[in-house]
Amino acid sequence: MAFLELKGVEKFFGEHRAIKGIDLSIEKGEFVVFVGPSGCGKSTLLRLIAGLETVDGGSVFLDGRDITRMPSSKRDLAMVFQSYALYPHMSVYDNMSFALMLAKVDPAEIREKVLRVAKILNLEPYLKRTPRELSGGQRQRVAIGRAIVRSPKVFLFDEPLSNLDAALRGQTRVEIAKLHRELNATTIYVTHDQVEAMTLAHRVVVLRDGEIEQVGTPLDLYYRPNNQFVAQFIGTPQMNMVSGPDLAEFETALNIPVPEGGYLGLRPESLTLNPANGAMVRAKVELVEALGAETLVYVTTPRGTQLVARQNNTRELPQVGDSVGLQIDTASTHVFDSQGRVVAPARY
Amino acid sequence: MAHRAPVSTALIVRTAAAWIVTLAIFFPLGWLVLTAFKTELQAISVPPLIFFTPTLENFVEVQERSDYLLYAKNSVITSVASTLLGLAIAAPAAYSMAFFRNRWTRDVLMWMLSTKMMPAVGALVPIYVLTQTAGLLDTRLALTIVFMLSNLPIMVWMLYSSFRDIPHEILEAARMDGATLWQEFRRVLLPLGMGGLFSTGLLCLVLAWNEAFWSLNLTAARAGTLAALIASYSSPEGLFWAKLSCASFMAIAPIVVFGWFSQRQLVQGLTFGAVK
Amino acid sequence: MFRLRIAAAGTEGAEGAAAPPASRERPRGEASRTLPRALLAPAVVSLFLWMAVPLAMTLYFSLIRYNLMQPGEHGFLGLANYEFFVTDPSFWPAIVNTLLLVGSVIVITVTGGISLALLIDEPFPGRGLVRVLLISPFFVIPTVNALLWKHMMMNPIYGVLAQVWRFFGAKPVDWMADWPLFSVIVMVAWQWLPFATLIFVTALQSMNREQLEAARMDGARYLQQLRYLYIPHLGRSIAIVVMIETIFLMSVFAEIFTTTGGGPGDASTNIAFLIFKQALLNFDAGVASAGALLAVVLANIVAIFLIRMIGKNLD
Fold it and tell me: Which of B45, B99, B175, C33 is most buried, with most CB under 10 Å away?
């Protein structure tokens, strides 16, 4: 059995079935990210594992023990909340030592542990302050420190970066990745940001409407999505979808058959503009976003399909209104049927 | 040479208007305080004395009146006791509704508030009769219970409100840290809810102290509060204004000061949270 | 013990009903209900008794003959007590006085309160102290309030108002004797003005400043801002102040008791005082109960509107 095992886990809120029978195995030391749109159940799933919500069906096993009915206080899990949930009336030191104090650990040992973690997270100067006197980033580190001090079996993160500004977010993301390498702790991380998912995870669990759409390594999901939802959720800008009026033309141009009512999926980087050796399809430039390291070109075909192409800047930038030719890399084309299931994965 | 921005005429006019109006409204109270320090002759002098040498003789005389001390004691005992008793009943109820919410919570809360809206005079006869039958007329016990029940809805409401303000994630964090229900309550909820308990208690102390209807109707000579005592000063036999002012001043001063500190709670408490 | 905790955690998370019957939730669900109910019980039970018992007794007394001086005679009278109360020559004057009292105080406190709140809305030197001074009358014991006005301000010989009148060469007015209801209105309004002011000050603070700036840039002058921005924003608080004051002012008692005693005659008697007179001065508990029930019905009508408005605000 895996370190953390979910079997047929279900959760109802009133009549609404929020979690629809989830099976998942997580190995020790893995960094697993739950990702998905708002309302998909990722936070609920995390809270079920934490014991903050009751499981209505199925079971949860941790390190061989059935923790399904066990209260949170006994599960030996640590959670970093989205709002940090620091104890406002306690100092940073007390916040971090609270759990150990409750467990009646020797004060000298507590002190040693807290100081060690404070050093790792650069919190030493702030140990006597209260949360009110800290900045957002500092509070976040205290929240993480509070979890680390306990050396729990699993770390649970609930959208920890969403309250930080952009610069701090990127920085902290890197720090979390480094921390995980050092501690090698089993971690479950919930986010709606797929960049965090791609960069931090060993494996990503994509959720929608209380069900798992796909589980895999980040690149697995990127290159081999099982369905249209995952294909469009992972990757920025979104994967281009061709259907309807233009489908026939693309099918012919690429020589790839698509089932009735289906879709062709094209990543922006598989489109090249104005290729040297003739274009498969023509389109008109609507918008050019020059980002510095690369440029995103938004084009529309004569029949109205909108596509995004990614172009690195060694090439000449097109102008708005230009008519351009598109070359499509057939090897990296995905085919989906009308239900959104993948028919032929890309042959990268 | 540094220039200061000119003070606008609007600001001067507003300040003057605000102060004039405020002093006019506060005047009766201010005059009361002044009169407390006058002799009886000075108090009724025509034209009224603004400058005089203050004397403390009234304070001494009022306190020497045995009934003043008794009534003051009654006021203190009934307000404090009813507040403490009320908190003891209201806090668990508020805790229950804030953290174990269910589909009836809202209705129960609304119903509790509605009991406060019954006019006291509606319960006058039955409560009088009950108190009389129980032999509790003119006792502090009766007043304490009545005060407590009158203010209970407000206490429940305010405590509920302040418990709801505690982010539930902090309590969850305590649970994740291994706290049992009792530890969660003692080490996190209580410290964080202390402020709410304190300000609710303060407001109810004020309301109980000022309660005049029941004091006037359920007590005579033994259990009356200061509210009732002052009323008895109104008989025309020898007005003794300076002493009356002094007695009044002593009766209201602590509560007016408490009131300054409980302004915000007052708004929330008396409007049942409808105005934030 | 830990079963209780899980269940507690469960009910906290699920906003609304418990899990459906199919799951194993039921036994735990029921275990979780005893603790919250036990905590809630004392408050609910005591308030229920506080409301139901007097109400039931009032209803009962209103239908029988009950004189506090003649115990033992409790014949059924049907609606006779009601008839007696309503045909009392003081009844209609009392109704009118009640309406006048409540209405005037509301008008004074709302207009005064809004004006004051607008006046002190923007900062100025000494604003903190001004707020403290303005609040003070509300915390004065009602009986002290009454005597303050009766003796210190309104006494026709030594009172401050009399002195001011004389200063301007006019003959001082005997407020209590000649204008009893008006005097009561003045002292009650003085006490409740701070309440209204405080409410409006609080409400104004939540006003969107950017909206005002946008209006100013659109060229709106102060009176226009007042009409189109301030007053609509205050609409809700005005409604609340009116309703709450109505409920509490209908029971004005201490001031009347301490000063005019309802007189001269019944010139300053309101419904509350009339009921009191019947009960504890005429000792007719039956008639008083009839009157009390009418007062309760009246109060409840207003309360229904207030409750609805508060209910909308409960998260």
Answer: B175
